[in-house]
Amino acid sequence: MANPTAAMLVIGDEILSGRTRDSNMHFLAGELTRHGIRLMEARVVADDHGAIVASVNALRARYDHVFTSGGIGPTHDDITADAIAAAFGVSISHRADAMALLQAHYDRAGLEFNEARQRMARIPEGASLIDNPVSTAPGFTMGNVHVMAGVPKIFEAMVASVLPKLTGGAPLLSQNLQVQRGEGEIAAEFGKLAAEFPDLSMGSYPFIRNGAHGTNLVIRGTDPARIDAAMSQLVRLFG
Amino acid sequence: MANPTAAMLVIGDEILSGRTRDSNMHFLAGELTRHGIRLMEARVVADDHGAIVASVNALRARYDHVFTSGGIGPTHDDITADAIAAAFGVSISHRADAMALLQAHYDRAGLEFNEARQRMARIPEGASLIDNPVSTAPGFTMGNVHVMAGVPKIFEAMVASVLPKLTGGAPLLSQNLQVQRGEGEIAAEFGKLAAEFPDLSMGSYPFIRNGAHGTNLVIRGTDPARIDAAMSQLVRLFG
To answer: How far apart are CA A132 and CA B138, in angstroms?
Structure first.
C-alpha cells in the first residue's frame, strides 16, 4: 500500500516577517515520517483570509491530509476558523461542547469567560474537536484538514492527539552515511547506485565544517532489507 | 509606493522528511523585512521536477520576486536548474563563464573538474549569475526568480549579493510590547486599537513561560510616527 500523503499550512505574519522562527513544521515532519505519512509540501501564509482559503483548498484537494498551525486564538488577527469554514462553504458558530469546555476552564482559573475567549468556541459546522490538554481551547478536524494552534507546546500536544487516529503506512525509514568528501567527488557513483534502486530515494546533503567539505548520503524507503542492501554498497564505495 | 512583494521556495526532501530543519526561510524573512520587501508566502517542496515547476510558475506570476534555496549541486537529486529552465520554457546548457569560474576553482584546489562538477555550470538560457564567494558554484537570476544554494552559509552569501541589486520599499518597521497577561484578557481593547489604525498591522503572539501565559503585542508598518502613536496608546492600555 502506498503511504498516505500530507501537506502543512503554517499561518502567521510573524513567521513571514522574520520575527519568529517556525518550529512546528520540523516537529510535524518528524512525527509524520515516524507514522508513515509522507509530508509532500508545506506552505507559510500571512494572516490573510483569501490566502488561507486558497491554500487550504489547493492542498486539501491534492493530499490525503492537511495540518494547519496558527490563528485560532481570541484576538482580531485569529481568523483561521472562519477561513476554514469559508474554504468548505459551511457556517461557523459558537458550539455548545466547546463553550462548555472553555467555561469550565475559565471558572477553574477564576477568569472571566469574556467575548474574546468565547471566540475560541467558534467551530465550523460539521467539524470534530481536537483535544488541547495545555490550555483547553480546542483545535478541530474538518474533512481532511486538521486545524491546530501555533504555540509549539499546544501544537505538539494536538498532533499527539490527532496522529494515532489517522491510518499511517509502512514507516518511512532512512539510513545515513557521512563522508568527508565533497559532493562532486561522489556524485557519479552515488547517482549510479540511486538508479539501481529506483524503489528507494537517495539524497546527498553537503556541509562545510571547519572549512572542510563533507556530505551526508541518505537512503530512504519503506523496505528495511532494500535499504540495508543499498547501504552495504554505499559503504563499499565510500566508507 | 507600495512595498515590493516576494515569495520563497525551499526545495528539498530533507526538510520534508524532518531530517534537517530549514534555517534559510527565517534568515531571508529578516533580510527582506530590513530591505522593505514583503515576504508574502513561503513553500517547501520535494526534489520533484513537476512540483518545482508548478510552484515556481505559481509564485513568479503572483509576486515581484521569488527566492529559491536548494538543489543546485552536482548530484543526481540536484534538479532545480533544469526545473527552472522548464518553468520558463528555455533551454539549459553548460555556460562558458560558469565553466571558467569552476575550472579555475578546481584547478586552484587541485581537484578534478569532473562531469558531476561541470553540472553546476548548467544555467538556463538568459539567466544572470549570482556570485558564490564560499564555494564558487554560482546561483542565478532568471526573470524575477533568484536561484540559490541550500547550504545556509552559501545561501546567506548569495542573498547578500542579490539583495542590494533589488529595489526595496520603505523599511518595514515593528515595535513590540510584552505583557504578562493572556491574549483573552487584552483581545477586545487590542482589536479596537487595530481598527483605529488600519494603515498598521497589529498581531498578538501568546507564549507560555514557567506555566504563566503572556503575550507579545506587535505593531508593524512603514510610518514610524504612526507606529509611535499606536504604541503610546498600547502602553497606556496595558503597559
So the answer is: 48
**Cβ within 8 Å, pair A16-B41:** yes
Are A119 and A204 found together in one domain?
A: no
**CB atoms < 10 A from the CB of A199, how many?**
10
**Res B213: pLDDT:** 85
Residue A86 in grid coordinates: 469559508
Q: Reduce the DSSP state of residue B41 to 3 states and report it.
A: strand
* A184/B76 Cβ within 8 A: no
How many C-beta neighbours within 10 Å does residue B171 have? Answer: 12
Task: For A35-76, write each residue's pLDDT tens digit.
Answer: 999 999 999 999 999 999 999 999 999 999 999 999 999 999
Q: How far apart are CA B170 and CA B191, in angstroms?
A: 26
Q: State which residues of chain A have pLDDT below 50.
A: none
Q: Which residues pair with B215 in a beta bridge?
A: B179, B206
Same-domain status, B156 and B233: no
- Closest chain A residue to B74 measured between Cα atoms? A184
pLDDT of residue B239: 82
Nearest Cα of chain B lies from the Cα of A33 at a distance, in angstroms, of 6
Low-confidence ranges of chain B (pLDDT < 50): none
CATH number at residue B55: 3.40.980.10
Q: Judge if A159 and A228 occupy the same domain.
A: no
Q: What is the ipTM of this complex?
A: 0.95
pLDDT digit string (tens) for B131-160?
999 999 999 999 999 999 999 999 999 999
Task: Return d(Cα A147, Cα A68) in angstroms, integer.
Answer: 5
**Contacts (Cβ under 8 Å, ≥6 apart) of A231:** A175, A177, A219
Can you give the pLDDT at residue B222? 93
Total count of domains within chain B: 2
Does one domain contain both B189 and B144?
no
User: Between chains, do A220 and B13 touch, taking CB under 8 Å as contact?
Assistant: yes
CB–CB of B42/B10 below 8 Å?
yes
Last residue of a domain, one of B135, B165, B195: B165
Range of the domain at A123: 5-165
Contact B68, B44 (CB under 8 A): no
Distance from the Cα of B23 to chain A's closest Cα (Å) equals 8
